[in-house]
Amino acid sequence: MQDVLGKYLIENNIHEKILKLCENLDNDSKATIFKILTRLKNFQTNPNYQIKYTKEERQDLERLKNEFFPNILSISKGIFGWNGYFLPIRQFEISVFWHKHAMHNFSNKTLENIRNKNIIDVGGFIGDSAIVFEKEFTNKKIYSFEAVSKNYDLMLKTLELNNSKRIIPVKNALGSKQEKLQISISGYSSSLKHSEKNSTHEEVEVITLDSYIEKNPMEIGFIKIDIEGFEQEFLKGAINTIKTQKPAMLISIYHNPDDFFNIKPLIESWNLGYKFKIYRPIDFYVSLETALYCEID
């Protein structure tokens, strides 16, 4: 998103979009928005731009260098570990394992509600988020949706390595309607939204969350959505579930400018009583993993 959004900032008058995005947000969320946009615009206009990190950011980056990366253990062929978690490939994402999806952004009341209900993991990848949710955030089940065959097979290995008992892998993509689509395969960033150059493709089955819940009734406390720019299509197919159950949600908004500026106003237009935060965990990037946190107070 860095180049795309940076260019978008230069070429478009986004004053009204920024005002709309900032409505009803806390000061920390507003500061996050302006930090991201300022840095992206500086990168776009100045090829020699160097980020001026705050003291807290420098400290966090040093901790990642000293405490996270050095402790990822190569155990044997096809087994890697960090802090009691195991994966079949060396793909320990900072946002997932170090920051634990920054779930601290939710209130204690919301976290308690999540603990006692099921979780929907949209964009399950290799099951990395699911094993963190299982261990730390819910006593119920996690339904992890992953459409790419290679990732899905790796997810099954992840569940086996971690002796997972409450994660239900589902080999489907989630979107606005039932259909078959070509997905551009690019590791953790495989996308239904756009086609990567030189990427391979796979035909995947797309269903809606609403149809899945109709066939498999359950109480949902939390939905995590990270599907490479297909988030708004997912929301269209999940609107009934969201309106009736009002789960807490973590929605990635960093994949393109349309998601960054428009997902929050879209959900606000439903008048469901959600409160919002925008947060980006510290890593070595500018906008990666920026997420919208939604909860009913």
TrEMBL record:
Keywords: Methyltransferase, Transferase
Gene3D superfamilies named in the record: Vaccinia Virus protein VP39
GO biological process, one term: methylation
InterPro entries with a match to the protein in the record: FkbM_mtfrase (IPR006342), SAM-dependent_MTase (IPR052514), SAM-dependent_MTases_sf (IPR029063)
Lineage: superkingdom: Bacteria
Family annotation (Pfam families): Methyltransf_21 (PF05050)
Tagged with keyword Methyltransferase: yes
SUPFAM superfamilies noted in UniProt: S-adenosyl-L-methionine-dependent methyltransferases
GO function term, MF aspect, one: methyltransferase activity
The Methyltransferase FkbM domain, residue ranges: 121-275
NCBIfam families named in the record: fkbM_fam
The protein's name: FkbM family methyltransferase
Organism: Campylobacter taeniopygiae
Lineage of source species: Bacteria, Pseudomonadati, Campylobacterota, Epsilonproteobacteria, Campylobacterales
